Each structure stands twice: as C-alpha cells, then as structure tokens.
Amino acid sequence: MTTRIHPAPPFDPELDAALGMVREMIPPSLLPEMIPALRQMPDDPTLEAQIAAVGAVHEERTIAGFEGGEIVVSIFRRPDQKTPGPGIYHIHGGGMIIGNRFQGVQGFLPFIESHGAVIVSAEYRLAPEFPDPVPVEDCYAGLIWTAEHADELGIDLSRLVVGGASAGGGLSAGVTLMARDRKGPELRASLLIYPMLDDRNDTVSAHQIQGIGVWDKTSNDTGWDALLGDRRHTDAVSIYAAPARATDLSDVPPTFIDVGTAEVFRDEDVAYASGIWAAGGDCELHVWPGGFHGFDGLAPQARLSVAMVEARNAWLARMLDA
Q: Fewer CB within 10 Å: C terminus or N terminus of the chain?
C-alpha cells in the first residue's frame, strides 16, 4: 500500500519573506542535543518597560508544585489593586522542553490597563528532566494557588481565565480538563493559542510540515519524546498530557483556538474545536491561511499577525467583560 504524499500548504507571502530572518534564530527541526543551547536564549529586554507602560508592577512568589517540588510564579498587576479584576493564569510555551514564565506574557499585559486584570505566570518544570506528569501537575498546582489567593491578589474568581501558546496551549487544555474532572476552580474561559495537543504527531498537517517553517514534525517528536518517553503512542498517555486523546470534551468553559494552516498543529487543533462543538460546547476557532507556527510573535508587523492578535484579544475582552 502506497502512503499518500500531501504537499505542504503555502506560506502567506509576507510571512514567507519574514521566515528568512526567523531561520537564522530558529531552525525548522529541533533535536534533543539542541535543548541546552535553546534554553540560553535571552529574555525580552523590553519586558520591564512594557510592564511599566501599563501601570503595573511585577512580583515573584515561590509556591508548592507537584509532589513536594517548588515552582516560581510571576504576578503582574496594578500596585494599587483595590477592586478585584479578572485573573489571567498564563502558561508559557516551548515544546515542553524550553521557555520560561516571561515568554508570551507580553500579549496579556494590556489587559492590566484596560480591565484591571491580574496576571499570574507559572514556571513549571521542564522535560526531559521532569517528564509527565510533572509539567501539567505543576501548572495545575499554580492554578489552585492562584484561586486560593484570589482575594490577596485582587482577582475576581468569576472571571478566571487560563491560557497560553504552543506547549502552553496544550498545558492550558490539560489544566482545564483537570479543573473539570477534579472539581477545581471554575474557569471563565480557556485560551488555546496554536496548542500542542497530540503526542501521536500523525495528522496530515504533521506530515506536511517537515523541514520547513517553525516547529516541524521532527521538533514535535523531540518535545513529545522528552515529555512522555516510552509511554508515547501508548494507552498510558493521559488526556491531561495530550488533550487530543480526550473522548469527552463536555463541560469545558468557553474556549478559543487559533492556528495557522502551515503548521504541524493545524489538524489536531481543528479536531479539538470540533470535539468541543460535538459535546455541545462553546469554541471560537480561527485558522489563519499561510500562517506558520508562532507567526504572530515572530513577525508581529505582518498583516496576518495583526489580524490574528486583534481577533484573539477581542474574544478575551468579551470573556473578561462578561
């Protein structure tokens, strides 16, 4: 039997031009031996200025993680937070293997100024040193801590949102399912930005994106192998580690998913949205033509990036306003 070859979808012309510069920083295929160097990538040097620009301050807390471990959370809020505002619990991306709590939080900072939001961003422990279930359990521990300290933090618990990008989107989906199944904090909404959901990595879009774009099929294998080891591709993988394996997506909060057509996660993200709809749930899905993985952050001035962020922020504002 001949395996059908699926040609890769085209990149948006403006984004395709930007990919030349992106490739100088991030190769399409990430291998395990690259992890140490990737962890040395510098943080955004403008972050503190962005925090100040929205009238916020930044503080750190060390809290209990999974099974006696400790994790750090960063809190971003107004220094004079008196009236409780919405809470945004942020989980960073990085394929389960890289990244930290400062990466991706920038997109939520404007909601401090516009909505009086309080942002809590978790530094969960990374694979392969800390394989599943440590990352998702650390993230859930951070959510529980946030809810338990809502009064102190100035958070209105009726407007608590969990969200993140890439691996952070997958972990946000896993934490959302945990909160549902463990009768944890009642979430107002779940924001899944091109989420990493399926360890099987065998969709059409996974096979299409190989050696091109950002975070290709090989990179995805690197991340999932680090997280799951020998359990990968078996029935021992939980729905909290790989939410695409969930067969029941009922009773999840309103969900937002966005993804590009030219990235590995396209098909699993569309399927996840379909699963929410099939269970009678509320999900807003945006599939951006010609978008590679993370294009909104890597090419923020592109017209498609601007449109993507506007759509996402409009949805989040509706959730926080309600």
A: N
